[in-house]
């Protein structure tokens, strides 16, 4: 007999099982027939005995008178009274014979039924044997497949073990690299702090030298002015005497809400330019003359008289409008979270592109100095960056805790500044989408502009603050008479235009950090915190004007 470890052991088990089932079936059916066959044999014996008795009891056909026939009872010595009559015995034997016949018929019928059942069982047994053979073949195939899969599992386990070892080695290597990176970052941070400190010290020294130079220059100018005051100086009026520098710097104020030109005595006084006539051989200042000839002059205020083009640009209100650096591209942003770019062709606008993906209403739009990127401030506490030509947002500058009201590029396309209602101003490194500096302010910021090394922010507390991008603190604060809604810096970075809720525009000379002129007009109202005023540059006779929208 095969043992449990031998491959033929399962086959011997099912064969023994079939033999046991067959023996059990034989014993069961044999038990049934063992009772039936003796009974049938007994009946046959009784039938033969009855047949014998009936033949003996039948009278001979030639005998007239029945002779006394000595039966078996007489031989045994029984009395004639005790022997039943022949008719009774015949009837009884016939009944028994008929009963035996019926029993034999039933038993024969049962034998036939059992034979039929035995044939059906034999056919079923053959069918089961064929199915068993098919299952044996299938089991053999499955065993082969199982052996192959077990071999594959072992191979995969070996591969996983090798990969796990490689992963652990890489993980340890990455840990070492990260530690080295952190050390390098700390060293870079220390170097950056040292560099900032050195730059701050150099800037302080440079400012000190400039201050000394300015004081010396002012002293020389004051001495020259004292000398010039002792001489006769004639002042004449007329456009012929207007210096070239004064003519090139004449500024025009155009206030859109003004219904009529501003014509009063103050404006008439500003219309009259002034100049100094000096005698031959004497000079009245060099630097001071350059300083004071750039004072803005209010020539006229007027309303636009003709609409050049009307377009349904947005599904909701328009919150921001911005021209590109070359004024051939216009960007508009609205509350529908879309930015539309328009080509300026003559006096008409043609659709260029739609920038999608803004997380909230657009509050501010700005182009970088090259005109290839668009930066927008949104209500979803972030600013987003697009590349002209790509419809989806390239970068999201998140970090503010309230809606962003202003987002402006610095003088390079890799840096930007944002102002928010969360009382912070943030500087961003666009190359890494990283906030390089956060300035905390005591008031909401409505607008920001950027110069070479300066950031100017306008706030709800009626103040304009100046921040040195190389230093951590506010360098100067200029108070105004209303909440500041917008700021605009001239191209030469010498003048700052502010719009405030006291319905005035103020031009600030950044060289002396003083408000040089305040513009008002009848009918002009600064009705919201997002009202904007910008410088607009014209021809040589009127180099720049101011536009409100």
From TrEMBL:
Broad class of the protein's primary localization: cytoplasm
Keywords carried by this UniProt record: Coiled coil, Cytoplasm, Protein transport, Repeat, Transport, WD repeat
Polar residues: bias regions: 60-70
Coiled-coil residue windows: 111-159
InterPro entries from the UniProt entry: ATG16, Autophagy-rel_prot_16_dom, WD40/YVTN_repeat-like_dom_sf, WD40_PAC1, WD40_repeat_CS, WD40_repeat_dom_sf, WD40_rpt
Domain Autophagy-related protein: 17-207
WD repeat placement: 311-344, 355-396, 397-438
CDD domains: Atg16_CCD (cd22887), WD40 (cd00200)
Region (Disordered) residue spans: 57-80, 203-222
Lineage: superkingdom: Eukaryota
Cellular component annotations (GO), alphabetically ordered: Atg12-Atg5-Atg16 complex; cytosol
Chain intervals with Basic and acidic residues compositional bias: 206-222
Biological-process GO terms, alphabetical: autophagosome assembly; protein transport
UniProt xrefs under Pfam families: ATG16 (PF08614), WD40 (PF00400)
Localization of this protein: Cytoplasm, Cytosol
Record family assignment: Belongs to the WD repeat ATG16 family.
Function: May play a role in regulating epithelial homeostasis in an ATG16L1-dependent manner.
Protein name: Protein Atg16l2
Gene: ATG16L2
């Amino acid at each position: 007999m095969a043992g449990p470890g031998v491959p033929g052991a399962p086959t011997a088990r099912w064969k023994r099982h079939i033999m046991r089932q067959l023996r059990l079936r034989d014993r069961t059916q044999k038990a049934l027939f063992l009772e039936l066959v003796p009974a049938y044999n007994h009946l046959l014996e009784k039938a033969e005995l009855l047949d014998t008795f009936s033949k003996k009891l039948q009278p001979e056909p030639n005998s007239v008178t029945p002779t006394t026939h000595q039966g078996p009872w007489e031989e045994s010595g029984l009395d004639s009274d005790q022997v039943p009559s022949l008719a009774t015995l015949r009837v009884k034997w016939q009944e028994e014979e008929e009963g035996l016949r019926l029993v034999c018929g039933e038993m024969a019928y049962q034998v036939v039924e059992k034979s039929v059942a035995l044939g059906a069982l034999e056919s079923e047994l053959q069918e089961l044997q064929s199915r068993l053979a098919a299952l044996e073949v299938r089991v053999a195939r499955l065993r082969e497949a199982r052996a192959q899969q077990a071999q594959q599992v072992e191979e995969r386990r070996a591969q996983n073990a090798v990969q796990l070892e490689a992963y652990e080695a890489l993980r340890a290597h990455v840990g070492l690299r990260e530690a080295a990176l952190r050390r390098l970052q700390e060293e870079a941070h220390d170097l950056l702090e040292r560099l900032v400190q050195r730059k701050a010290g150099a800037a302080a020294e440079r400012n000190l030298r400039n201050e000394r130079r300015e004081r010396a220059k002012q002293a020389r100018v004051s001495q020259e002015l004292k000398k010039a005051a002792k001489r006769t100086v004639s002042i004449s009026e007329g456009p012929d005497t207007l210096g070239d520098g004064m003519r090139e710097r004449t500024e025009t104020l155009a206030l859109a809400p003004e219904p009529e030109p501003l014509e009063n005595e103050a404006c008439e006084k500003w219309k009259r330019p002034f100049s100094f006539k000096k005698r031959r051989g004497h000079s009245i200042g060099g630097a001071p003359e350059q300083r004071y000839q750039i004072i803005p002059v209010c020539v006229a205020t007027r309303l636009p008289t003709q609409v050049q083009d009307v377009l349904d640009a947005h599904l909701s209100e328009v919150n921001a409008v911005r021209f590109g650096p070359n004024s051939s591209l216009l960007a508009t942003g609205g509350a529908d979270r879309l930015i539309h770019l328009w080509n300026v062709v003559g006096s008409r606008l043609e659709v260029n592109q739609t920038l999608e993906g803004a997380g909230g209403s657009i509050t501010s739009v700005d182009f970088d100095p090259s005109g290839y990127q668009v930066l927008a401030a949104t209500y979803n506490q972030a600013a987003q960056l697009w590349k002209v030509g790509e419809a989806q947002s390239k970068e999201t500058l998140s970090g503010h805790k309230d809606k962003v009201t202003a987002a402006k590029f610095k003088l390079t396309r890799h840096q930007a500044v944002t102002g928010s209602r969360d009382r912070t101003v943030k500087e961003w490194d666009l190359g890494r989408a990283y906030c390089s500096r956060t300035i905390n302010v005591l008031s909401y910021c409505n607008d920001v502009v950027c110069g070479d090394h300066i950031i100017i922010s306008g706030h709800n507390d009626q103040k304009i603050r100046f921040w040195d991008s190389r230093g951590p603190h506010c360098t100067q604060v200029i108070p105004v008479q209303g909440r500041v809604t917008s700021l605009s810096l001239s191209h030469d970075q010498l003048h700052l235009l502010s719009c405030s809720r006291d319905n005035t525009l103020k031009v600030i000379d950044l060289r002396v950090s003083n408000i040089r002129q305040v513009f008002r007009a009848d009918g002009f109202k600064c009705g919201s915190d997002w009202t904007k005023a910008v410088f607009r540059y014209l021809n040589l006779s009127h180099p720049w004007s101011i536009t409100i929208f």
